[in-house]
Amino acid sequence: MIGRAKIGLGALLLTGLAIAACSSSDESASADLASGSYANPGDENGTGAGATSTGTTSATWGGGQGGAGQGGSAAQPPVEPAPGSDAGAGGAPACAGLDPSKPVTLYLSSDDSNSMGSPVYARELLKRGIAPAGGLRTYEFLNYYRIAYPAPAAPKLAIFPELAQGAAAGDLDLQIGIRSFDAIHPRRPMTITFVLDTSGSMGNGGLERERAAVKAIASQLAEGDVVSMVLWNTSQAVVLSGHAAIGPNDPTVVGAANALQADGSTDLSSGLVTGYGLAQKHYGAGRLNRVILVSDGGANAGVTDADLIGANSKDADKEGIYLVGIGAGPADGYNDGLMNTVTDKGRGAYVYLDEPAEAARVLGDRFDEVMEVAARGVQVELVMPWYLELQKFSGEQYSENPAEVEPQHLAPSDAMVFDQVLHACDPAVVKTDDTIKITARWQEPMTREKMETSVEVKLGDLISGPKERLAKGKAIVAYAEALKTGAHEALHAAHDLAVAANEGGKDLELGEIAGLIAMHPAY
To answer: What are residue 14's phi and psi, to 5 degrees?
Structure first.
């Protein structure tokens, strides 16, 4: 999805952190505030009070103090400008034209938190010694590589902001995590419709990954789940229609996966039309209804316009049927742009399989993240002091107008992560007692009940607060951005961040990132 009415969007830099914030209804609020830790899962109605932390904090606002993975250092706070000086509210030349009485209010959106195709697609290319080209989406790297936020109780969401000094004077790195509750088991029953590409191009390695995808999802089936399956190339063949699964690894579904063969041309649009017809025929109210498209993204017969193909998904979205897109590659001939467009319009997950084993990891171990919805239409509001602007942003959209930012769904056991660089028009006007407020609004998926929670924390308390997730967030973002540019210096800087953040070498994901960067031809 292309962002609209974006304000000053620039190339994304490393940003990182995750701090907590605390609900006034939390029994441990006093202890959390005293220790500098904040967490706000919202109250019993899903509406957090947004407690403001107390106390004063020393901080360096001049920038340039934070080392790799350190997130800045504490020092003396800025001195209040003397009366009559050029600095201060309304007096600093750099702040001319800004109204100190009006806070900055922005609305943020990332792609669905369970869309995570880019990093795996890039990983396959890097392992082949190929530099990834354009089109990589930084927010998908933040979705794929996990940043550990604690889960609130269902049906709440929790907000975790973290703040650190940026690399330049007046810059602040802000990372916001919106964490859902963990998946509830046993889950609700599912109606799944597989739409499987069996065109000739899938015979170049994609078919093996496609079989693995179907089998990984089959391993998560429960008795009573309803499964349909259409195979498509130039024509469409309905293999299963309303099949009632007997449980995990249902032999009928596994047998259909084993029988897949590649042949013919590609008519993706007609395959989706047939698949959605089956999904609507077997639609179940109160069930999890999903269309699962597996393809290499080719569309060389029939309707090939991505917007027209995606319209099938958008129409079905109104009926509560979401599209899960699974890219089967191989990467050197894969149409990532088409698959991303189709699944984006389908409002579901987008994953990529660089090898058959990835299917078990992302569709088995992370099944709930890919298939389920914990919070529907999440809207994130950020309110900042008048002197701050959003300079760089890792998400997909932001705007001062909430109508111009499309809310996104959040899966269970998952988090939306926003990384941004804030800039103060003049460091001298920054006050540690000023606050940042973050509000999340969403709907309960089944009842459509409106829910809300918020956090409001002083800048000083944020800057001195815990930054346990800062280093990893900065490393992930730096990695994604370095791949976009392919610049030698950026790759080395990202590698250094990943190594520095991985204290003791215990984080396997950071270890993977460092290793992949070293495979880049320009490293």
So the answer is: -65, 140
Longest dimension (CA), the chain: 81
Cβ 518 vs Cβ 495: under 8 Å: yes
Distance in angstroms (rounded) separating the CA atoms of residues 519 and 331: 16
Using CB atoms within 10 Å of the CB of residue 185, give its burial: 0 to 12 exposed, 13 to 18 middle, 19+ buried: exposed
Read off the tokens for 187.
């889950």
d(C-alpha 244, C-alpha 240), whole Å:
10
Gap between the Cα atoms of 71 and 467, Å rounded: 7
Task: Write down the pTM of the prediction.
Answer: 0.81
Q: Residue 401 phi/psi, 5° resolution?
A: -105, 115
**Looking at the DSSP assignment, which residues form a beta bridge with residue 79?**
none
Q: Which token pair is 32?
A: 């959390």
Peptide bond into 155 cis (omega under 30): yes
Mean pLDDT per block of 10 residues along the chain (523 residues) reads: 34 30 33 37 37 31 33 34 40 82 92 82 95 88 94 96 90 94 93 94 91 97 96 90 97 96 84 89 89 84 64 61 89 82 79 96 94 91 96 89 89 93 94 96 89 96 87 92 96 96 94 98 96
Write down all domains in the chain, each with its CATH number in brackets: 29-183+374-516 (2.60.40.1230), 190-371 (3.40.50.410)
- Compute the radius of gyration of the chain from its Cα atoms: 24
Instruction: Tell me how far apart the alpha carbons of residues 356 and 359 are, in angstroms, rounded to a whole number.
Output: 6
Q: Return the ∠ at Cα 457 (arms to 453 and 461), rounded to 5°.
A: 145
* Residue 322 near residue 224 (C-beta atoms within 8 A): no
Tokens of 238: 């309905």
The SS3 assignment for 274 reads helix
**Residue 122: which H helix or E strand, with range?**
helix 117-127
Of 105, 104, 166, 164, residue with least CA distance to 387: 104
Q: Report the distance separating Cα 228 and Cα 237, nearest Å.
A: 11
